[in-house]
Amino acid sequence: MLNKNQLFVLGGTCLLLLIPLIGMLFTSEINWSLGDFIVMGILLSGLGFICEFVFRRISNKAYKLTLIASLVIVFLLIWIELAVGVFNSPFAGS
């Protein structure tokens, strides 16, 4: 059973994924496939669940802040690599 915070993570993920979905209705500049939505949903919900876990389990505020900041940086690096292939890895398909 999911607790209130985990339901909030899932709801937030769905709301964030609505942004490109609605944007695709108004412009041809946004062109996401089903796979893009799935990958971003996994990334966003994974980040949310891991952050929620860290908030519940870690009591040291400095360690908690450092860990959350590190997770967000890793998330952003993966997102950037998938979006534009900054590092030219096969991970991004470039």
TrEMBL record:
<keyword id="KW-0472">Membrane</keyword>
<feature type="transmembrane region" description="Helical">
    <location>
        <begin position="32"/>
        <end position="55"/>
    </location>
</feature>
<feature type="transmembrane region" description="Helical">
    <location>
        <begin position="7"/>
        <end position="26"/>
    </location>
</feature>
<keyword id="KW-0812">Transmembrane</keyword>
<protein>
    <submittedName>
        <fullName>Uncharacterized protein</fullName>
    </submittedName>
</protein>
<feature type="transmembrane region" description="Helical">
    <location>
        <begin position="67"/>
        <end position="87"/>
    </location>
</feature>
<keyword id="KW-1133">Transmembrane helix</keyword>
